[in-house]
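Page 47, continued from p. 46.
Same chain as before, 116 aa.
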Amino acid sequence: MEFIIHTIFWTLALYGLFEIIKNIIYLSTYTNFKSDGIYVIVAVKNQEEKIEGFLRSTLFKILYGKEENLKNIMVVDLKSTDQTKEIVKKLSQEYECIQVINWKECKDIMDNVDES
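Result:
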């Protein structure tokens, strides 16, 4: 019985050590990655009750402390009939990385992406 417990213990210990080494290698590789920035495109329609919380939580949870890498959060308004566009415009004054565009402008941006 003692042999089984020691075998399980050492198996888990080696697995944990392997995971730690794997994460260290991954993080060192990832942090050396050079990028032109992060671009987020969010398409919305009639989301006045949820859009402000979504954008603020996105900025806080995902990008908190890394705003220097964030180029733009483009909120594409899909012809909302409520106050969604006005709420996003208010947030864009508070956060310069947020920008409101319509779906035609988004299509133009996507069509002109350099694939090199």
